[in-house]
Amino acid sequence: MLNFLMIVIEQSLIYLPLALGAYMSLSLLKVPDLSLETAYLMGAFFGATALSYVVEYSLWIGFMVTMFASICGGALVGLTSSFITSYGKVPHLLSAIITFGLFNGIFQYFSSSYQSLAGYENVLMLFSYGKQYPEIGGLIIGCTFVFILYIYLLSTQLGYSFAIFGFNPLFFKHFNISTPYVFITGIIIANGLAGFSGFLFAQTSNFIELNMGIGKSLFYITTLILGRSVIYHTKISIGIPVAGVFLYFLIQQVLLQIGFNLQYFTMIQSLLILLILLTIYKKDRSLPLHDQLGV
Amino acid sequence: MEMHKNIKLQNVTFSFSEQSKKFFDDLNIEFFEHTLNFIQGKNGVGKSTLLQVLSGEISKEHNLQGQLQIGMDIYDLSQTQKIAQLVARVPQNFNEILVEAYSFVENLQFAQMSRYPTLFQLPVKKQLPSLIKKYGIDNNRPVSLLSGGQRQILSILMVLERSPKVLLLDEPTAALDEENANIVMNFLQDLCMHQDLTVIAIVHNHELVAKYAPQGYFELVNERTKRTIRFIE
Questions:
Q1: Is the pLDDT score of A264 beyond 50?
Q2: pLDDT digit string (tens) for chain B, length 233 residues
Q3: CB–CB of A174 and B118 under 8 A?
Q4: A164 and B118: CB-CB below 8 Å?
Q5: Residues of chain B contacting residue A161, judged by C-beta atoms under 8 Å apart
Q6: Which residue from A47, A229, A269, B1 has the highest number of Cβ atoms inside 10 Å of its Cβ?
Q7: What confidence score (pLDDT) does residue A238 get?
């Protein structure tokens, strides 16, 4: 039982930053932000690149440098896609697709499609104890740090401005507040978080790979819909991505325990989304069924 | 109460481009200070454009000349940023400036945010104007549950967070029933009396005009291709 729970917690921690980023762009800003997938890849790439420069330093320094690098990698993707949207007057979905193409090329230029990280020391192994789950300490510290900053951010003017953007993007122009500033900042932070998740995955799996971000949109949409199905809140609620990511891996592990072949898990995710949208959301008319992506 | 015509719009000349015909040609108006001023006129005569000129919302590529006098101070209308600090306009669709899921007080806090929202907490709302109590508004109620009149009052208060001297409204009661229209008009009258505000509003409803501006109203007319404004007592 403990082993089961630890796997759920470990997996949840790896993907928590991605869920928080998705919550920011999809639920608060209400933007169909597919660039999170690209940010996930580029975060892993930037983190892995930083990893090769910190081999001579202590694990703590390596941990902080790679964490910062991965967030910057994701943020760069966010900056690109949001800049194209704001100043190119292109729908964000299209900007995200363009960004995917651009960074796909950049990744392949600087790296091979598959790169093993086995030759480097694992920066998540900050503590010598806990042989069975040696990375859990690094994951807890990294996620706690990100989580505290995220909670603080959402209580500030900037955090509220993301939610305002989602409810009423016209609001800003009437009060002489910069709409591009709010939008670009929100997407940069969301993508930075996705980048951090990408690196946590890469470090725990010991590799980065060109296609590692593809399909992550289904993950984060499922996560947010699961979270919304248990916590309904019209304003900002950080419980939604947290509960969503935990439930996601709980369901996945339960299915694994009963002998389910996880090769069909993608299909299960789609069925789960459909089931929730057609039952819980439909039953409660106050829930915004046709809200942005239902999240 | 004696009323002074201390808000003056002088020698206003405006065209949409240098090549196009003058839309306003040497237009002069004197509004009453600290009271309700109503403007009427036929559709398309330029009432909304007049409010845009007055609120500093006309972009630089448009050809705008003229002065705005508030009390003893005279401002050039082409100084749009300065004008925008003195004159505020509530949009015709007031829902455009409201954030539905949040409460009355939270919306007022949002209206105080800086141009680039910071990493500091939202500004704490000072004491709400005492006259709010008169209108029975629950400050903590989400905007989505407020009546049309209460929403209009909130949108006015949000615009007033920037402390303008003149408030412009484009058909503020058009979307409201009679009861809510009267609530909004009473509120505007209270603002003029207790907060020394001057209100200039486009209102088509003759009953409301007669009730809240017994001294008369302004009519914008297009006479022989020249727009003029006259005061109807």
A1: yes
A2: 556 778 999 999 988 887 888 899 999 999 999 999 999 999 989 999 999 989 888 877 788 889 999 988 999 998 888 888 899 999 989 999 999 989 999 999 999 998 999 999 887 766 676 667 788 888 888 999 999 999 999 999 999 988 899 999 999 998 889 999 999 999 999 999 888 899 999 999 999 999 999 889 999 998 877 899 999 88
A3: no
A4: no
A5: 113, 117
A6: A47
A7: 94
Chain centroid offset of residue A59 CA: 24
**Segment A81-97 mean pLDDT:** 96
Phi-psi category of residue B229: left, alpha or beta, with phi > 0 → left and psi -120 to 50 → alpha: beta
> Across the interface, do B122 and A157 touch by the CB < 8 Å criterion?
yes
Spatial separation of the C-alpha atoms in residues A259 and A253, rounded to whole Å: 10
Structure tokens at A138: 């690094």
Do B117 and A170 lie within an 8 Å CB cutoff? Answer: no
A56 within 8 A of A67, measured Cβ to Cβ: no
Tell me how close the Cα of B51 comes to any Cα of chain A, in angstroms.
Answer: 15
The mean of the pLDDT values for chain B is: 89
Backbone angles phi, psi at B7, to 5 degrees: -110, 110
For residue B54 the two structure tokens come to 């007055």
What region, left, alpha or beta, does residue B196 occupy, with left being phi > 0 and alpha being psi -120 to 50 degrees?
left
B98 contacts in A (CB within 8 Å)? Answer: 168, 171
Here the tokens at position B46 are: 């330029």
**A277: its two tokens:** 């949208």
Size of interface A-B (CB pairs under 8 A): 72
Tokens 């993608």 sit at which residue?
A: A266
